[in-house]
Amino acid sequence: MTVTLDDLLPAALRRSWAVDGSCPDLDVYSLYRARLTSDPHRTALLDAKGKLCYTALDRKVRALAAGLAGLGVRPGEVVAVQLPAGRDAVIADLALAALGAVGLPFPVGRGSREALSLLGRSEAVAVIAATGHRSARPAAELLGLADRLPSLRHVIGAGPAAGVPAGCVPMAELLRTDPGAFTPARPHPDAPVRILVSSGSEAEPKMIAYSHNALAGGRGNFLGSLLRDGEPPRCLFLVPLASAFGSNGTAVALARHGGTLVLLDHFSPDAALDAIAAHAPTHVLGVPTMVRMMLDRLAEAPRELPAPTALVLGGAPLDEATAAEARTAFGCPVVNLYGSADGVNCHTGLPDAPAEDSTGRHGKGVDAETRGVPIGRPDPRVTEIRIVAPGAPDTEAEPAGVVGEILARGPMSPLCYVGDPGLNARYRTPGGWVRTGDLGLLAEDGTLRVVGRLKDVVIRGGANISPAEVELALAGHPSVRDVMCVGVADPLMGERLAACVVVREGAPVPDLADLGAYLDGRGLEPRKHPERLVVLPELPLTPAGKPDRALLRERFGTPVTRPV
User: Fold this and answer.
1) What would the DSSP string read from start to end of 1-64?
2) Per-domain residue ranges of the chain
3) Range 477-504 burial, b when 16+ CB lie within 10 A, else e
4) Burial level of 422, CB count in 10 A (0-12/13-18/19+)?
5) SS3 351
6) What is the dihedral of CA 171, 176, 180, 185, to 10 degrees?
7) Can you tell me whether residue 463 is helix, strand or coil?
8) Do domains 267-413+434-453 and 458-555 have the same CATH topology?
9) What is the CA radius of gyration of the chain?
10) Which end of the chain has fewer beta carbons closer than 10 Å to its terminal beta carbon, N or C?
11) Strands (E), 401-446
12) Percentage of the chain surpassing pLDDT 70?
């Protein structure tokens, strides 16, 4: 049985984006082959093992595709992938695209409970997993789940042959298959190619199906708008390729734009800075917390670095203090990306415009045109943005300046949610728009400003507090390097707001009174001020590279007010 992946967009609308050139109307592997033909010896990727050119990569891709076909993997079937960022992950991406199969990558570090949910609901027929990565043993863990997954036929172990658990198919063995025996499937460009995973606010991780056109076309247009003179990019991915943000890797940077991937199998600030120094990437893609950690390292040990074309930061709100410091330290524009696996994208562009104060500091409080974070003007070649009253039909757009729920629809719109009809009913409108669950407004000049989350609120005594709003205000505090706010249970008020703070090197540790006085100066009313403070050496990250809000909630259910 193969899971059903219906397209919830009107077919005529989907086709119109291919006709007007917004989408290339080719499958991902065919796009890659076209890039190979034009420059066969161009470097496709650099990882811990060294360089791999487009031709050498293609031989491995065809061999793996032939090996998977020999195992019985067929077009339309789902194959999960749990690999660190590196050549094996890219080979798997392209091989599944060439087979016409649907890839389901998820980062190493996801627990067995999540893995069981993802593989079961997607009806995955196989999973390709690392035999070892740092302290994790994904292949063995997934093999232990196999008897609870009726659709799963094969666990494929990627790693040295001696470390492949009994019962797993060695990936190295599949890579020895004759690549000449394989004929690409050439799937329809509007057919599914990849399932993106997002933890979001649901009890189980959300899975969102993307077509070749939506992934390489719509998402490809996002990256294309950030290229200088159409030059192929050299992209350093600080986030895992298996994350939603990392889906801009193989299908977009490589297949669509003919670029080079610079890959780290796990993030550390030193490894990231070393990669910038050694490989001079044009684009560095990560989350603000990663860049703050890199800025701390540069403050401790300054070094000369080649200037990228842009730092592209998403996954969490970007405050102006971090953006300004990063612009100076890296000598390049900082692109503020608002996007999600669910099918929304908007971003600031090139060249970098004069810095706006994204935290709403205007001396006399915050008005409708300066609320939230400015994210640039929506690009219809990626997604259109519409603001509606929460729960209202997608046809009833709010006027400029009015806060409402952000809806998105465009060439990058996904097909559907996977294995959960309830999510499709909740988050997709009859016209195909995605309900993001985010609050924002479109200013008079067309700029999108993101205000917060509908669900991500702390309810204190019946009053709602947006943690994102408080975080963005506190990020400008001179002692605060990084901050995340979470709600903690309280017997009187229901919840109170706790600020989890990373202090700048050499700066005094603030207390609650100091933070409150600073927020007063930013026009934030006292009911929104943190009532608990936790000082951390750094914020924890999820396997996808984002700040781990859920872990902080769990860890600090009874918060302390001293360093831990």
Assistant:
1) --------S-HHHHHHHHHTTSS--S-HHHHHHHHHHH-TTSEEEEETTEEEEHHHHHHHHHHH
2) 11-221, 267-413+434-453, 458-555
3) bebbbbbbbbbbeeeeeebbbbbbbbbb
4) exposed
5) coil
6) -10
7) strand
8) no
9) 23
10) N
11) 404-409, 416-417, 434-442
12) 93
Q: Which CATH number fits domain 458-555: 3.40.1160.10, 1.10.3430.10, 3.60.40.10, 3.30.300.30?
A: 3.30.300.30
Q: Which of 528, 527, 486, 479 is nearest to 504 (CA)?
A: 479
Prior bond of 170 cis (ω within 30°): no
- Average pLDDT, whole number, for the chain? 90
pLDDT digit string, tens, across residues 468-525: 888 888 988 999 999 999 988 877 777 889 999 999 989 999 999 999 999 988 878 8
Distances (CA, A) of 287 to 246, 270, 294, 313: 11, 16, 11, 5
CA dihedral 547, 549, 551, 556 (to 10 degrees): 120
- Tokens 């259910």 correspond to 557
Tokens of 483: 């901050």
The mean pLDDT value for 434-438 works out to: 90
Rounded distance, CA 357 to CA 344, Å? 23
**Taking the domain 11-221, which CATH number applies?**
3.40.50.980
Per-position DSSP letters for 383-439, written without gaps between them = -EEEEE-TT--TT-BPPTT--EEEEEESTT--SEESS-HHHHHHHB-TTSPEEEEEE
What CATH class does 267-413+434-453 carry?
Answer: alpha beta
Q: Is the pLDDT of residue 239 over 90?
A: yes
* Start-end of H helices in 485-561: 512-521, 549-555
Q: Report phi then psi at 563, rounded to 5.
A: -60, 145
Dump pLDDT digits (tens) for 203-216. Answer: 578 999 999 999 99
Strand, coil or helix: what is 228?
A: coil
424 phi and psi angles, rounded to 5 deg:
-60, -40
Within 264-309, strands assigned E span: 283-286
* Contact between residue 435 and residue 418 where contact means Cβ atoms under 8 Å apart: no
Higher pLDDT, 110 or 284: 284
Q: pTM score, two decimals?
A: 0.84
Residue range 142-172, pLDDT digits in tens: 999 999 999 999 999 999 988 999 999 999 9
Distances (CA, A) of 61 to 57, 110, 316: 6, 26, 34
- Of residues 152 and 113, more confidence is placed in 152
CA–CA distance from 6 to each of 3, 238, 320 (Å)?
10, 32, 41
Question: Could you tell me where the DSSP H helices lie in 144-264?
Answer: 171-174, 212, 219-224
